[in-house]
Design brief:
about 220 residues, alpha/beta, 7-stranded mixed beta sheet, two-stranded parallel sheet, 11 strands, about 30% helix
Amino acid sequence: MIDLKDLEYHELESFLVELGEKKFRTAQIFKWLHLGITDYDEMTDISKNLREKLKEISYVSTLEIERKLVSKLDGTVKYLFRLPDGNCIESVVMRYHHGLTICISSQVGCRMGCRFCASTIGGLYRSLTAGEILNQVIFAQKDMGERISNIVLMGIGEPLDNYENVVKFLHNVNYEKGLNIGLRHITLSTCGIVPKIYELADEDMSSRSAKSMPQLRSLP
């Protein structure tokens, strides 16, 4: 079964058209997915027939908050999220004068071997899907009840070692009918996978709402 959050907007549109649905359903479903619904029955403007059809061939992925720590000093919130397969990842929400910034993970573990980073100690278990990366933003925002306006891909894992899923995530989190977070407000940290840096620079973002690439930060 397919997780609808793994699909970009145009892919979701094609998916629904193949089911015999009208294109306008795409915007409705995409909106609900990014609001953090956990069940198709929460999509109140979608017919029961379509909801039942979607249940048969797809699902809505979720994250479970395993642990939540809140700093008494500055309100920073650290989440330990449990994935459906039992693995855990970490995300951190920091409060600044310009809004909330979330630091998210892109993999379970890491194989880069950077000596200063604890994420690599156990090696790489697996990469996160586009939907699992997105869910960190969605469910942290839902739990806090405030809009997250900035993203840093600097949690567990090397983003450019999970290139395809990270790029899909960037497209979806930036899309105007979803969370609509501009790429100028996203920083992607990398230990320096040079071919993928060039590949990312060549990505076509012009058809989407932002007119820039995410910021790249290379770790020492």
